[in-house]
Amino acid sequence: MTKNVISPQQVADTLTQKFGDGISKLTIKEWAEGSKKTKTYSIWVYLDRSLLKDAIRHIASLDFPHLSVISGVDCGDHIDLLYQMSIFFGMKNSEIKLALVVPVPKDDLTIPTISDIIPGAAYGEREKQEMLGVEVVNIPDGRRLFLPADFPEGVYPWRKDESGITPDMVKELYKVGRPTDRPVPVVKPKEKKKPVKKETPAKEKTPAGENVVPEPVAEEKPEVKNDE
Amino acid sequence: MSEDGKKKASYNVPIGPIHPALKEPCLFNFKMNGEVVEEADFAPGQAHRAIEWMGMRRNPVQIVHLTDRICGICGVSHTLTFARCVEQIAEIEVPERGHYVRTIIAEYERIQSHLLWAGVAAHELGFDTLFHLCWRIREESMDVIEYLTGNRVNYAIIQVGGVRRDFTEDQFPRIEKSLKYYEDLVGKMLKLFLEDKTISLRSKDCGVLSYDDALQLCCVGPTTRASGVNMDVRQDAPYAAYGDIDVTAVLPDVYGGGINGDVYDRIVVRLFEVVQSVGIIRQCLDQMPVGEVLWEKKYPKILAACKKAVGEASASVEAPRGECFHYVRMNGKPEPEAWKVKASTYSNQLAWLKMVTGEQLADLPIIVASIDPCMSCTDRVAVVRNGKRDVLTKEELHRLSVEKTRRLMQ
Fold first, then answer.
1. Which CATH number is B10-48+346-367+377-409 given?
2. Domain-embedded: residue A181
């Protein structure tokens, strides 16, 4: 099982060649870690929405991609959907990370499904529908994924506008306090420490002895006094 | 009854949200035909805690410790992935020794996680002696982690720019002792798991996931490797000290049985990864450079660097269960503009549907457990649990599983 591995620059070239004007920005990032500074590469492609499926098909023709996750960011007037995948895995240091960033305007929040090309994407698409309110056209399974059944409709937790989580939905646990319909805990409030504190000044009251007697003995002295 | 096939009613068996195999909640719904699963469905999200939402209201130095709490078992994987994202955005270079400390802790975490899983798998099959043995052995790695980081779980060792504590010279003999301990035990563990008749009977050809399904459903980690997909972040895109070290993905054919993608293969992969982890720690100790472990000792300076950072980055780390992926976007504010966490189980859950179809109800606990699911990792948003549901409790299912083992042994 050998893969036809090409360099990140070549991958970027094939993308620009094929999609040209549809790509608004393309960057290749490089990062190195370890003593040997082993380099890893990631390609970030800002792509027009209409080209998404073609781009995924093109990538799949190079090597069937592993889709890590679909991320989403609310950028105000549009939502960025990031299809983050990797190709050419399976050999030492050969992997290239690819992020297809697709801006979706808020007045038309739709995106075609890619689960016909990558079946595993259905999971992430369900999550994007419920978390960002992006409608995934032709999604094979449109149910909610993580949100509970009684979560209000039209509220999208990742949105930063008025349809996001409102302050009244947030439970500040530290403000909640103890429930009133339960018995009070039997633990007594900690008052025992106070008399101990009163003793400590008593220790300090015998500074004269400190010069002569070592500390542990000095601690014993007040106890003896109490016993008496 | 079987004659008039049309009238044979299939029925639904809901399992959960209290988890059938593990201690974590997930709701399953199986459409059964007699003893055989016809269709399966599941609803995750029963353990949501809104961690991403909380993160977007905190600064990176705080989030690092929040990521520790995403998962109790793969704590270091999430912190490491998040730290790597922020380091890329703020262009912070981790000192070489910091990379090695990260790698060693990550490998100890893999050992303890895989052994914990091996114990759970044995328990699901009704082999409780082996379960206790596995967890006893696991304690050694937990002890070393506690010795090195100060904590058994939530290690709090990783910081943006490196690690918070260095290993001291007098700690190395203890590490060496633990490596020796595992090297001595390897043969015994492999024999107990892989040559045992009960385990073979229950796990071979059970819960099969084909190569194509594993690839197309984007599975990760031991689950996908057991199906023959050669994918391991440590090998494919080396991070921390893995670039300096010899790491290759463990496929089930290391044991000579070929690649079948069944539960047995998942056991093989995980056990041999424990062996591999011991080797990796050895290599790290041999090559470990001297020097600083943190980019900047003063945390306010780290924070200041993060606050100035503008940009986006993603990072992935091979957690015990597979690829752990984070995406962070910063825009010159203390708190990130976006933070997405993808835990390994997120990618593996869809594979359940393929694995359980056509299997028996009594096999479900071990199949569900075989991807080593970690619900707390995967579910991270706010939650209210409602109403009563008819459920098969974990105990009932476990009893079914044990009974099947007994039947097979007769």
1. 3.30.390
2. no
Whether the ipTM is more than 0.95: the answer is no
Say whether A68 and B218 touch across the interface (CB within 8 A): yes
Residues A201 and A120 in one domain: no
Whether residue B218 and residue A92 make contact (CB cut-off 8 A), yes or no, is no
Residues A170 and A197 in one domain: no
Residue A60 placed within a domain = yes
pTM: 0.85
**Six-digit token pair at A41?**
């590469």
pLDDT in tens, A107-131: 999 999 999 999 999 989 999 998 9
Mutation target for B interface from A33, A80, A93, A169: give the one with most B CBs within 10 A.
Answer: A33
For B340, the closest of A33, A34, A69 (CB atoms) is A69
B153-179 pLDDT tens trace:
888 899 999 999 999 999 999 999 999
H or E element in which residue B158 lies: strand B158-159
A159 vs A100, A154, B325, B329, CA distance in Å? 20, 11, 21, 15
CB contact under 8 A, A84 and B325: yes
Residue in chain B lying closest to A160 (CA): B337
Which pair of tokens denotes residue B66?
Answer: 């929040």
* Residues of B with Cβ-Cβ distance to A145 under 8 angstroms: 43-45
Pick the CATH number of B54-340 from 1.10.260.40, 2.60.40.10, 1.10.645.10, 1.20.810.10: 1.10.645.10
Taking CB atoms and an 8 Å cut-off, how many pairs form between chains A and B?
157
Q: How many CB atoms lie within 10 A of CB A126?
A: 20
Pick from B285, B311, B250, B315: which is nearest to B85 by CA?
A: B315
Q: Inspect the interface and report whether the beta carbons of B327 and A31 lie closer than 8 Å.
A: no
